[in-house]
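Lecture notes, part 5. Sequence design as translation. It can be helpful to think of inverse folding as translation between two languages: the language of shapes and the language of residues. The source text, in structure tokens, appears below.
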């Protein structure tokens, strides 16, 4: 079972290099074919550094500049293989990541696979506040059962034929992180497929990109905007909840 790894990128040169290096080991441990596709719209200065990292770690770089959803759709379009694994550029793959995703596809009803994230790296004073928010819960969902209704695209694979059948990511969602992966998962399940969890298919996520006050405020804002579109598009999943203290 061959795997195409699709990563939407913009800047984050040092973090991306760590990811590509970790993927090189994961690919060496995987007995079938694989490829790494970076869909990038970085600045010219960063692009040159990323191109050098691609040469070092056997990855392909493609320029494409609309939304994150558009980048991922383009990556899936040019992917050569039957399974597409989406990762975020600030993650680090564990050595057997590809194997753990692939083994979940033995059942033909499995349309996608969700894997967990574990945050690593240095902590600042603000991180102690971040861990008290509900925003990290979704990254642990694959640890809680055999299946999930959706998964975060920081560690999420899907059969290419299933991805194409549902039309890929909805590019009408806001052009910022949040919501498009929830929508994708709900549509996969609505088509009658299972999203299988892999507890062992772990990815590490650097705390650096979640430890800045301004960045977290923007993230919360965009997640809130995404909720509006999700509620509008998937009203059957909406339930009333009384605010807690």
């Amino acid at each position: 079972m061959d795997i195409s790894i699709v990563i939407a990128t913009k800047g984050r040169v040092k973090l991306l290099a760590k990811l590509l290096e970790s993927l090189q080991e994961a690919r060496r441990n995987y007995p079938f074919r694989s490829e790494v596709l970076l869909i990038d719209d970085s600045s010219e200065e960063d692009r040159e550094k990323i191109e050098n990292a691609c040469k070092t770690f056997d990855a392909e770089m493609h320029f494409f500049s609309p939304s994150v959803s558009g980048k991922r759709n383009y990556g899936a379009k040019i992917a050569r293989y039957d399974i597409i694994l989406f990762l975020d550029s600030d993650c680090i793959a564990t050595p057997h990541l590809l194997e753990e995703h692939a083994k979940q596809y033995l059942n033909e009803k499995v349309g996608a696979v969700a894997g967990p994230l574990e945050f690593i790296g240095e902590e600042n004073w603000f991180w102690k506040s971040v861990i008290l928010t509900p925003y990290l819960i979704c990254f642990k969902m694959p640890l809680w059962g055999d299946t999930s209704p959706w998964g975060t695209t920081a560690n999420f694979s899907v059969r290419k034929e299933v991805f194409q059948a549902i039309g890929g990511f909805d590019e009408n969602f806001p052009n910022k992180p949040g919501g498009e992966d929830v929508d994708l998962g709900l549509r996969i399940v609505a088509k009658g497929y299972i999203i299988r969890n892999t507890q062992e298919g772990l990815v590490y996520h650097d705390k650096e990109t979640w430890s800045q006050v301004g960045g977290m405020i923007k993230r919360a804002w965009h997640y809130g905007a995404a909720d509006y579109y999700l509620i509008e598009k998937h009203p059957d999943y909406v339930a009333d909840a009384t605010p807690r203290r």
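The translated text above is only one of many valid answers, since several sequences can fold into similar shapes. The helical segments are 13-28, 44-57, 68-78, 97-102, 127-130, 160-165, 180-190, 213-233.
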